[in-house]
Design brief:
The complex is a heterodimer of chains A (370) and B (179). Chain A has 14 helices and no strands. With 370 residues, chain A is an all-alpha fold. In chain B, 55% of the residues lie in helices and 13% in strands.
């Protein structure tokens, strides 16, 4: 990866750590909500990982300390990142912590021991690491495989737990957040899987293909950026969700307007005559226009029922065909028993609207002069 | 300058928003009963919401007591709750906007309750025309703007419902400065 990309990722990671360190309520974290500390540690170790993976810094650091020590620190840091992420995740989701801790703590310990041993016995004597993706020696292969396999297990654990959490959420905001963490952990798992494949390139030339290396770089970039997104404030998630929701609401409005186009042909609107909002008008005030459409559908339903139930109320310009069509539309609208909830009401009438036969062209000159 | 935005004039909406500000009501926790109580207190008039068998094509009607500090809002009750509330809000909006209405008295109410007379619904339309459209637009706009506030808050609650209901999650996100 180019130095520019590596440095950019480091800047993003440390920015997240610094911003979160300032935003975190440390008194609460250290007294009543220690789980938040787990996630903060995960953030910190991830930033450490990216820093020691950046070649510019790694070469400088190794020059001052020991050969390839930066690589040991980076691999240990990423193991700790994933460990603390899993712990934080299972605490939040109320998954029984005991059985997980029974496995992942020893697994973490084993991984760190293996990394240190392999480093001492082999990697420290290898040529300076130049960000090669294929191991150049057996100790290197073992070194990489130890970390990548632990990381893959952790990422998959995170993916499964986040996915299960996502399925339990009802509020859109938490679904969005859970989807983000699920995708991040899935991307991370994919990255470590590809890295294991590249380790296999030491044994099998086929697994050294450039395309696999490129895929791993893309996955790392994606995972790092998604990781940063996971720590965004709820406000930012809401600011993304609202326009997306409003787009769906615009589609809902169009469905309701299709009903209104039919109803308006047969009975006048109650109280006021309104036009259709433009896209821009709707986006400024989606709740208002949706509400107005719902009320007009409800008004139209009642008016149509009143007109059809009384010969005196029926307009003179209704011929038999129109009366038949009006009865059909009234029947469809009457079939809806709207719930008390506003959004459910919209859903029910949209469903009913689909039962209406295809709209016919307006009967020019026959509508009343409304 | 007042110009049409396709739905209502900008001036009508601004008037509605001003009235809402003046009412100073906690719309996020809106219930129609509390809202009526607030208006009642503001106007110094007791407000009665009366479900009624309204004539065809008439949804609601507001009448004022000419002798005592009482207001009567008649509305169709065999409608979905959301529709009933809108009709009630529409009629209350006429009251808030100071629109003209019919005056009734105890004698007429007693006669109606005994079945000897009918409420003068047919006089309502005559009372407000030819300004009918303008007054109805104002009332309809005010009622809709009120509900807009309620719906917007309700939407935000739905968006964040898991956070608000899950104390552990709520604390966790707050501790990390993410909510």
């Amino acid at each position: 990866m180019s130095p520019a990309v590596e440095i950019s990722l480091c800047i993003i990671a440390w920015s997240v750590v610094i911003l979160k360190t300032r935003a975190v309520r440390w008194k609460e974290v250290l007294t009543s909500d220690r789980n938040a500390l787990n996630l903060w540690l995960s953030m910190l170790f991830f930033a450490v990982t990216l820093t020691f993976l950046a070649k510019v810094f790694a070469d400088f650091f190794d020059g001052l300390t020991a050969n390839n020590l930066s690589r040991l620190i980076a691999y240990s840091a990423v193991s700790l990142t994933l460990y603390f992420s899993v712990v934080a995740s299972v605490h939040i989701q109320d998954v029984s912590i005991d059985w997980i801790m029974r496995y992942i703590r020893p697994l973490l310990a084993l991984t760190l021991v293996l990394l240190i041993l392999t480093y001492v016995l082999g990697v420290s004597n290898s040529p300076q690491w130049d960000n090669h993706h294929i191991p150049s020696s057996l100790p290197e292969a073992f070194f990489m495989f130890s970390m990548y396999s632990f990381a893959l297990v952790m990422s998959l654990t995170l993916f499964v737990s986040n996915f299960r959490y996502l399925r339990r959420q009802e509020g859109e905001l938490m679904r969005f957040r859970a989807a983000t963490t699920t995708i991040t952990s899935m991307t991370g798992a994919a990255y470590f899987f590809v890295k294991i494949v590249l380790v296999g390139g030491y044994f099998l030339p086929l697994l050294r293909a450039d395309i696999i290396v490129t895929v791993s770089k893309i996955l790392l970039l994606l995972a790092a950026m998604m990781w940063a997104v996971c720590y965004l404030h709820n406000r930012i998630y809401i600011s993304i969700l609202r326009p997306l929701e409003n787009l769906l609401h615009w589609i809902a409005l169009k469905d309701l307007e299709r009903i209104l186009d039919r109803v308006d042909r047969f009975c006048p609107p109650v109280a006021v005559t309104e036009g259709r909002p433009t896209f821009g008008q709707f986006f400024q005030n989606p709740e208002y226009y949706l509400y107005r459409a719902v009320i007009r559908v409800l008004d139209g339903k009642v008016m149509l029922a009143d007109i059809l139930s009384s010969v005196d109320e029926r307009p003179d310009w209704w011929d038999d065909n129109l009366a038949r069509e009006a009865r059909l539309i009234a029947q469809v609208l009457q079939s809806v028993r709207p719930p008390d909830d506003f959004w459910e009401t919209i859903r029910e009438y949209r469903r009913a609207g689909r039962a209406l036969p295809r709209d016919r062209k307006p009967l020019l000159g026959l509508e009343p002069g409304l | 300058m007042i110009y049409s935005d396709g739905f209502t004039t900008i001036g009508v909406r601004q008037k509605a928003e001003k009235i809402i500000r003046d009412i100073d009501f906690d719309f996020p926790s809106f219930t129609i009963e509390e809202f009526i109580g607030r208006i009642s207190a503001l106007k110094g008039r007791e407000i009665f919401m009366v479900p009624w068998d309204m004539p065809a094509t008439l949804f609601g009607a507001w009448m004022s007591d000419g002798e005592e500090p009482k207001e009567y809002v008649f509305y169709r009750s065999n409608l979905p709750l959301i529709h009933q509330i809108h009709i009630q809000l529409h009629e209350l909006a006429h009251l808030l906007l100071g629109h003209p209405t019919l005056k009734i008295d105890r004698k007429l109410i007693m006669a109606v309750l005994k079945g000897e007379e009918a409420l003068p619904f047919s006089d309502m339309v005559l009372l407000r025309s030819p300004k009918l459209v303008e007054l109805e637009t104002e009332a309809e706009t005010l009622a809709s703007v009120i509900q807009e506030q309620v719906i917007r808050h309700d939407q935000l609650l739905r968006l964040t419902q898991d956070i608000s209901s899950d104390e552990k999650l709520s604390r966790f996100l707050a501790a990390l400065g993410m909510s």
